[in-house]
Model the fold of this input.
Amino acid sequence: MTMMKLSTLKVSTLFALAGFALAACSSSGSSGGSSGGGSPPTPPPPGGNFSFLPVGTLIAGSGTGYSDNTVYRNIRFPLLKVPAYANSQVYRPGGSQNATPGQCNSTNYAYPWQDNFCETRTSSTNIWCPSGKGHQGQDIRGESCKSSSALDAEGKVDANVVVAAESGTVIVVQPHYIKVQTDDETTFYNYLHMDQIQVGLGDYVAKGQRLGRVANIGPAGTPYTTRHLHFELKQVMNIGGSLREVHVNPYATLLDSYQRLLAGNP
Ligand SMILES: [Zn+2]
Done:
C-alpha cells in the first residue's frame, strides 16, 4: 500500500512538472499575438457532463432506498469505457414496470445516475431494505442499447464490455452470470445478464480483465431483461453472531470508481 502511494505521488509529480513545462511552452509560443477569431469550441468530455442523484434516491413509486455512502472497495468500474448509466432497468422505459416501451429511450442513456438498490422486488431478500426484500445490486447500462452482435458488426468490439471490478477467482459460471471471490475471501462480485462470457469456472481474473458483454440474458441463456449489467457487491459480515455473505449497496463504490475512470485514472 505504501509503495503504491509513493509511486502514485511520483507519477503525479512528474505529470505536474510536465504540465507546467507545457503550459510555459504554449504561453511563450502564443506570445507573438493572434488577432481575433476567438477560441475553438471546447469538445465535450468523453463521459459527457456527468451528474448523479444521491445514494438512496430511487425512482418515485419503486420502493424505499437505503442510504449507504460506504465505499466498500477500491474497485475498477466494471465497464471498460465511459459513458455508462446506472439506473433502473425495470422502472425506466422498456422495463417491466414502465408503460413506455423502448429500452433505447434516450432517458435511459443519460445522466444523472440513479440508485436502484432496494427497489421493490417480491422475492429478493435484502436485510437493508425496510420490507426485508428488494433489489440486491445496481443496474448499469453501457454506452449503447444495441446487442453485442450488432456492435461487433459495426466494429465496436470494445463497446459495452464488462471488466472485473477486482481480481479474484471465478467461483460460479452460468449462461448469464459469473461470480468472483477476492483473494482475501471477504468480498464477492456478481455480474449478471451478460453474453460473450469469456472466463471459466476456477479461472483467476485480474482487475480490469474482460469478462463478457452487457446483454439481456437470463438463467436459461435466452433474453430475459432489458440490456444492462446487474452488478452486485457482497461482503462477508457478522450478522447476529454468524458470518454471512451479505449484499451491500454498491452505489457509492461504483460512483467512486466511475469518477476515477472519467478522470483517466481507473
Ligand atoms: Zn438488477
